[in-house]
Specification:
heterodimer, A: 121 residues, mainly beta, 7-stranded mixed sheet, 4-stranded antiparallel sheet, 0% helix, globular, B: 113 residues, 6-stranded mixed sheet
Chain lengths: 121, 113
């Protein structure tokens, strides 16, 4: 069955960096685009970043552009989110989610359970 | 594209109909394939979101048929025909038009009356 498992969250000081990972299994990882979506405590969902199935395209929300980098390692079936210059407003649960359709970037049908990132001094 | 949902909170009795609205700041309809790039998600406390509806009106596999989506262009609706206790959750719409960013609505909290 399809599984997505996030890791790498924790407490970090403002201005520092953190790298999140998303380990995928149960599907052909290299055929699907993957997204990061975050949710601040008690708040709604915010789309953060996406990478195409072949890594050829990467997209970012304005709120993280220039600070976050999404990447993938198909040999390890793993997605990454490198987060630099973290701010308190980046505090959230970070979910990874796969696209529903192969090779196209629309609608996310499987989600991980998330990893909590807390940015605080 | 900005996506706006209404109402923010909705209280409905068991067995009654629940209707949630979603409006996008620009059309998410593609005339090339006659599809609306709009999805609906359900999120229960402590859980990740779950895809309910995609292409505005196509029910995801395993989703009960009391859930339905409608609308086109900029105005969309999620309807639960007969509310069950397990439907209490927060519902989000999301546009997937063209390329990201794929914005979500602010969410609608559905409660029991």
């Amino acid at each position: 069955q399809v599984q997505l498992v996030e890791s790498g969250g924790g407490v970090v000081q403002p201005g520092r960096s953190l790298r999140l990972s998303c380990a995928a299994s149960g599907f052909t990882f290299s055929s699907y685009g993957i997204h990061w979506v975050r949710q601040a405590p008690g708040k709604g969902l915010e789309w953060v970043a996406a990478i195409a199935y072949d890594g050829s395209e990467r997209y970012y929300a304005d709120s993280v552009k220039g600070r976050f980098t999404i990447s993938r390692d198909d040999s390890k079936n793993t997605l990454y989110l490198q987060m630099n210059n973290l701010r308190p407003e980046d505090t959230a649960v970070y979910y990874c989610a796969k696209d529903k359709l192969e090779t196209s970037g629309y609608f996310q049908d499987y989600w991980g359970r998330g990893t909590l990132v807390t940015v605080s001094s | 594209i900005v996506v706006t949902q209404s109402p923010v909170t909705l209280a409905v009795s068991l067995g009654e109909r629940a209707t949630i609205n979603c409006k996008s700041s620009q059309s998410v309809f593609s005339s090339s394939n006659n599809r609306n790039y709009l999805g609906w998600y359900q999120q229960k406390p402590g859980q990740p979101p779950k895809l309910l509806i995609y292409w505005a009106s196509t029910r995801e596999s395993g989703v009960p048929d009391r859930f339905s989506g409608s609308g086109s262009g900029t105005d969309f609706t999620l309807t639960i025909s007969s509310l069950q206790a397990e439907d209490v959750a927060v519902y989000y719409c999301q546009q997937n038009y063209n390329t990201p960013p794929y914005s979500f609505g602010q969410g609608t909290k559905l409660e029991l009356k």
